[in-house]
Amino acid sequence: MVRVFVFLLLSVLLLGCSPAPEQPKKEFNATDVAWLQLADALHTRALPLLGLVRGRSGSRTLADLAARLGRKHENERARLRALLARARVTGENPHVQHDMPGMPTADDLRTLTGLRDDAFDRRFVALFRAYLDQLVLVAKGEQSSGSAPEVRELAAALERDHTADLAGLERAGG
Amino acid sequence: MTNRKTTLLALLSLLIGMVVIAPRPADARVIRVAEFLADCPFSHRLPDDPIVFPGLPGASHMHSFFGSRVTNAYTQLSDLQNGATNCNPAVDKSSYWVPTLYRDGAAVEPAIVTFYYLGEGVRDDIIATTQATPLGLRIVAGNAKATGPDGSSIARWSCLHAGEVPPSKDFVNCPSGTMLESYLDFPQCWNGRDLDSADHKSHMAYPVAGACPSTHPVPVPKLRQVIRYPVSGDPSHFRLASGGGFTMHGDFFNAWPTAEMERRVRDCIRPIVKCGADGRPS
To answer: In terms of residue numbers, what domain contains B101?
Structure first.
């Protein structure tokens, strides 16, 4: 009982004393941090969209593509988060709860959940295209305004990948 | 002796207290307001935000910009200082922006946009110590991420010329012939050190019980953004680029010339005098 109390007391003290978030490291400029957070938030909001494809899409090609993109986007998100950690940006991503351009909204997901076959595919392809277009756009911004070489390199790699994904999406959905 | 001294002191403090709290004679009609203002109409629209998404054009939801004519995703202080403005007074080169309002999907720009700089919010003795808003200060006020009209949103909606409609955190239904208006007060206590912060908010704080908290000890003029839209009626037709009415927020990038800002703080805010756009008693 005493041990539980001491544990609780210690947890409260430790939590209460957690340091204020540090300022991002100097080598990462404001664009680097903003892009990493925005790209992470876009990925986070797109993953549930990919999760809807299996069992609803009328196209085997599209279902396979979505499964592959799901794995790829999880991996990309891990790379974005690793760089956020290197930049010492901690805490909740401010953009995840917020409908930003390119993000599927809660309404979009609800509508999509009720659709099947061709109707589903058309709507899904439109939403995922908007998402990839936005990722490509902001990756360009990072490459021209970012500072940290590793962040700019990731932006260049993602821009290439997502441009290829767009082409794959057109093939599978067209 | 000691008793008499105490009694005297008590009487004296009572007298001082009465003078301080005594209401002003009704016939004087002097309303003391520490205020100066800038009228800055709509300038342009872009899906950019140089505070939240610097260097990332197109990253943001659509914003309506007021004041500076040049603001975009790349804007730095020197761009504002060297750029044109539509503010009255023209010395205010600051940039102000909000999420664009849409009615049935069509953008609606405000008819009247006024930025008040006020002393109110802290005690009069603290108003007397107000410091000039530092050049280059950036603030985001309001909550773009609000998910409902709850405590997390600060902006208020009301109707111009229809005071009977109670203000709300979400859009209100304004009678025909009146205008939908939005009020948003920015935090007025500065940490005295940073012109911006990672979340663009934590270098500033709202006052507590009429004083600035010890973490943010420097009182600066409170920016009050008042925006009047030429729309009325059923609020279900309205949305902001950031979502519902409760997501209203404002961004401010200060580019007032230091001397102009300091003069207004000295002549209008600290002595609690109502000034106009020119920073002279009105």
So the answer is: 32-269
